[in-house]
Design goal:
The protein is α+β, with helices and mostly antiparallel strands. It has 14 helices and 17 strands. The chain starts with a helix and ends in a 40-residue tail after the last helix. It is a multi-pass membrane protein.
Length: 499
């Protein structure tokens, strides 16, 4: 029943979480307009007067333009409603070529006037460079491994020096301006828009200058180019397009989230994976993915909860393959160490580490290992098995014997092969009542939800997912205990009802 599964509280928390998230998202993308356009509390867009504007982009080795600046591009007749893309070459100063930085200063100002002389100009500053570890040299299959090792020694300094981050060039600069004539309410001005807004008074009215935005999410790792001392100039693609106010606010929050993750230790590679979620995905599909992922999170949590609960209350290993648990733990730790050695993203590494700890805990429960501390020295004690458990161990050992014949020729299928002992035990006992079925079912639902997302992605490419069929193999064994330690035959027999 629902009460036994304790599903209602979890479902209630899940519904509250989804509704709260929807409310927060609605508050981000929706901005309340000014209800009295002729009132003093309204802020009118400066672009409504259709002024003649110019776009100017400068570079400087410092963000405040101290030490000089250079004009790299300008749009003299800048129309905020016209989309464009320009490819230019940017000359690099000596300090930038020597592992330094370079900044871009983007100005929107009155046409024919220098931006520093225009009191109604708006500008933003962004970095055109970032620091990353250089890409490792590729192995040449023709020239051999020796040259690869020689190149690697050269990249590390030749004396085993540690590789340090070097300056990389961001080859894209994406600009956006809110072109819609939106009236802001001064008393209900969103805080995220406030830091991008500059206002001025003209008579009794208040105007806000163009909302200029630099899209940092479009800067991807794949577009970075390593800078060295011999690089005189590098290409830069300047893209401009209008942006809706709701999308602007959403993009501001996403950029702030990525920046916060980087402050917590996420590398440029980790942040790039998160950027790809928003940049490479349609916003409507992203919203659909969010709802589907929310259900995936729910069932994943329930699977995790029930798996932990099953092993926490597990007193007997009857019908369970302890060797399968041991080898699953071993393979999970090997995978985690491999991911750790490859410096995989924290988004993958952290769940893998938690899964490894859980598998170690399962081994402790399966083999009935007890830790007794004598001072600072731990001692490991093993519990005894009863007759039913010893019978299961016999089947388990027999399965491992047969499995050893396949290990060497099929070593690549290591993870799959060590599922066989549990299958063999199930076959010999003709029962699967001892398995954590609730956790299995929740994991199956998680797999279904994930396959749903995958099917949506594949459908855009005209591909179909293969189908599969399932069948029931084992009959119902009423003498076997279930996950609660109760069998059907243990139910009290009731007396026949007398009319």
């Amino acid at each position: 029943s629902w009460g036994n599964l304790r599903f209602k509280p979890t479902l209630g928390v899940f519904i509250v979480y989804v509704l709260h998230t929807c409310w927060v998202m609605y508050g981000i993308v929706y901005t309340k307009p000014c209800e009295k356009p002729k009132g003093d509390s309204c802020i009118t867009p400066y672009l409504a007067g259709k002024p003649r504007l110019q776009l100017s982009i400068y570079t400087s080795i410092r963000p405040n333009a101290e030490g000089g600046h250079s004009l790299i591009h300008k749009e003299e007749e800048f129309d905020v409603h016209t989309r464009f893309e320009r490819l230019i070459n940017v000359s690099l100063p000596k300090k930038t070529r020597r592992n330094g930085t370079l900044y871009a200063m983007v100005f929107v100002h009155q046409a024919g006037v220098m931006p520093w002389q225009d009191p109604r100009q708006v500008h933003l500053v962004t970095q055109l460079t970032t620091y990353m570890l250089p890409k490792p040299p590729e192995v040449s299959l023709i020239q051999g491994q020796d040259e690869h090792l020689q190149q690697e020694r050269q990249s590390t300094g030749g004396d085993g020096e540690q590789v340090r981050p070097v300056s990389h060039w961001r080859s894209r600069l994406t600009l956006n301006i809110v072109a819609e004539d939106f009236l802001f309410d001064r008393d209900a001005l969103p805080s995220d828009v406030h830091r991008y807004m500059r206002v001025f008074n003209s008579g009794k009215k208040m105007f806000y200058l163009p909302l200029l935005f630099i899209d940092e999410l479009s800067n991807r790792v794949k577009d970075l180019m390593e800078i060295n001392s011999s690089t005189a100039e590098l290409p830069l693609t300047i893209s401009y397009d209008t942006i809706a106010l709701g999308k602007l606010r959403f993009w501001i929050h996403m950029q702030d989230a990525v920046y916060s993750l980087q402050q917590f230790g996420f590398t440029e590679k980790d942040a790039d994976e998160i950027k790809g979620i928003f940049v490479d995905t349609n916003l409507y599909f992203l919203a659909l993915t969010f709802f589907v992922a929310a259900f995936h999170l729910l069932f994943d949590f329930l699977a995790f909860k029930n798996d932990i609960s099953f092993w926490k209350h597990k007193k007997s290993m009857v019908g369970m393959s302890s060797k399968a648990v041991l080898w699953r733990c071993f393979s999970t730790i090997v995978i985690f160490l491999y991911l750790l050695d490859e410096q995989t993203s924290l988004l993958v590494l952290i769940p893998a580490g938690i899964g490894s700890l859980i598998e170690v805990w399962k081994v402790k429960k399966a083999f009935k290992i007890y830790v007794v501390w004598k001072g600072a020295v731990p001692q490991f004690l093993f519990g005894k098995s009863d007759e039913s458990e010893r019978r299961t161990e016999e089947y388990d050992s027999l399965a491992m014997k047969y499995l050893s014949y396949l290990l060497y020729p099929l070593l690549y299928a290591f993870g799959f092969l060590f599922m066989l002992p549990q299958l063999f035990v199930n076959y010999k006992l003709k029962s699967v009542a001892h398995l954590p079925w609730k956790a299995f079912m929740y994991k199956k639902v998680c797999l279904f939800v994930y396959s749903f997302i995958l099917a949506l992605r594949r459908s855009t490419h005209g591909k179909q997912l293969p189908t599969c069929k399932f069948s029931m193999l084992y009959p119902v064994d009423r003498t076997r205990v279930n996950e609660y330690g109760v069998s059907y035959d243990e139910e009290p027999k009731r007396k026949a009802h007398k009319d």
